[in-house]
Every structure is written in structure tokens, then in C-alpha cells.
Design goal:
Helix content is about 5%, strand content about 40%. By secondary structure, it is mainly beta. It has one domain (about 15-90, about 100-115, about 125-130): OB fold (Dihydrolipoamide Acetyltransferase, E2P), CATH 2.40.50. This is DNA-directed RNA polymerase subunit.
Length: about 140
Amino acid sequence: VHFRYVVFHPFLDEILVGQIKSCSQDGVHVSIGFFDDIVIPPESLQQPAKFDEAEQVWVWEYETEEGAHDLYMDIGEEIRFRVVDETFVDTSPTGPSSAEASTSNATEEAQKKEAPYTLVGSISEPGLGLLSWWTNS
């Protein structure tokens, strides 16, 4: 039997570019197309940042001489981030925990499963964040 496989394992401190998939109180969730389990937690965003409950997006409150400007992290925008941590979770299959497990419990457990590999990113440095923030127009 012959087969090929591709391994995705970025280095810590590597800079990647992805797209914002969603935003929540937990942070900004990023996709790079073939890999979606990337999160940028609130403490790793450009500061000061706040979560806009109405629009469900994070906002960087950028201070200038003319006052504060709200820079929104909209879904679908391209974002440059640094990989600061990674988490591997053993997802080896296990047998049923008890004979009394019902199908509703099984579906709840399936929804709670963690991703086997998760990256944690940061945009708390100059040049990181939405690409549109740093373009010279």
C-alpha cells in the first residue's frame, strides 16, 4: 500500500494570514482555508479592544491625535497573526462509559468534543491584524 499525507504544523512565532471566520466573547476565530481551529483570545488583540455585542465583532479603539477611531474586525476580512501557542488533544476513540448512556448524551458529547489540534494567535504587535489596517493608500 502506498499513500501520501500532508502535515500542517506551523512554527511558534510564525506569521500567518487567514480570514476571520467568526467573533465571540472568546476572541476572534480564524480560518486559513484548509484549517479552521485558530483562535485569537481577547488579551492578544490590539489594545484597547472591545466586543460589540450588537454586531458580534471585536473593535480596536485606535487612538490618534484627532481622537479615537473604531477599527472593526469584520467576518471575511484577511488578518495577519503570529502563532503563539498550540494545543494537541488526544482524540483516540474510547468505549462507552456506561451501559446507561442514552443517544441524547452521545449527541451532546459529540458537540462538546475538542478539536484535535488548535492554534492560538496574537495580533498585539505593530503590523499584525487586518491587512486593511496597514495598507498605504
